[in-house]
Amino acid sequence: MNARARRVLAVGLGLTLLGELAPPKLAWAGDTSSPVVGTPEAVAAARVHFQKGRELYQAGAYREAIIELDAARALDPKAKDLVFNLGVVHEKLGEIDEALRYARLYAQMDLEPAERVRAESYIKRLEGAKTEVAAREAAAAAASRPPPGSDAVEVRGRIDLATLTAAGVAVVAAGVGVGMGVKALGDKPSDVTTGPSYSFATYQSQASTAHTEAVVADVCFIGAVVAAGAAAGLYFFRYRDAPAAKTKHAFTIAPLVTPSVGGVVLGGRF
């Protein structure tokens, strides 16, 4: 089947030829309908750009093919098939709106009856593709959202390893801080000293020890506050992994038997 027969078949089916761009119809010098740039030199240069664009298209380099076709069209703006092929390449890239723009521009040109049928069929197919893409995107967006009234509602309050670790650090730091604070108060030397064995050196040693314990207590309290803030942020500013509005989260413990180790491990799950 020659190129002309393939094009007639494509028009009848409303399809563009795959793997081959339509041959250009370039304006020649002396054609009164051609622009000023339609000189033999411009036509020859446009043919070179078109041929390179077709080779890039067949190699799958669609962006580069568009550059060459645009260069050819700049030399011959009234070449109808250049406009049509630009729509084809943009469609290959999934740029339906841009393909439609060139298809409609092609339909506004001085077309033969068979070309008019091809333009109308191509526009209709692109509009159908655009509607299908929009429907798929809407369906995907709807699928990503939980249905109204379902249990799959986003609920803040995520408890995971990070949250538990931060909370644990806060509790331990607070406990250590309280312990060291109590110890610092107990080790603080009294202002009234009695007994021959109580010397100034002993007083200094007790004061230094109490001061160190107080500093450690302060550091622990600061760490507890920071860790508690981190735990609160990790809990309140994140969503649960698998939230359920009608089911309360419970912590269950179940024995996990590991024959290879020969022991029983208790595992917890929220």
Task: Give a written overview of the molecule.
This protein has two domains: 3-144, Tetratricopeptide repeat domain (Serine Threonine Protein Phosphatase 5, Tetratricopeptide repeat, Alpha Horseshoe); 161-269. It has a two-stranded antiparallel ribbon with strand order 1-2. The radius of gyration is 39 Å and the shape is elongated. Mean pLDDT is 75; it is low at 1-19, 23-37 and 243-270. The protein is mainly alpha-helical and 270 residues long. Helices cover 61% and strands 5% of the residues.
TL;DR?
With 270 residues, the chain is mainly α. The protein is built from eight helices and two strands.
**Strand order in the sheet with the most strands:** 1-2
Beta-strand percent range:
5-15%
Using only C-alpha atoms, the radius of gyration works out to 39 Å
Helix content range of the residues, please? 55-70%
How is the topology of this model organized?
Layout: H1 3-13, H2 40-58, H3 62-75, H4 80-92, H5 96-107, H6 113-144, H7 161-187, H8 200-236, E1 252-258, E2 263-269
Antiparallel strand pairs: 1-2
Helix pairs in contact: 1-6, 2-3, 3-4, 4-5, 5-6, 7-8
Keywords, separated by commas or semicolons:
about 270 residues; mainly alpha; Serine Threonine Protein Phosphatase 5, Tetratricopeptide repeat; two-stranded antiparallel ribbon; 8 helices; 2 strands; elongated; disordered C terminus
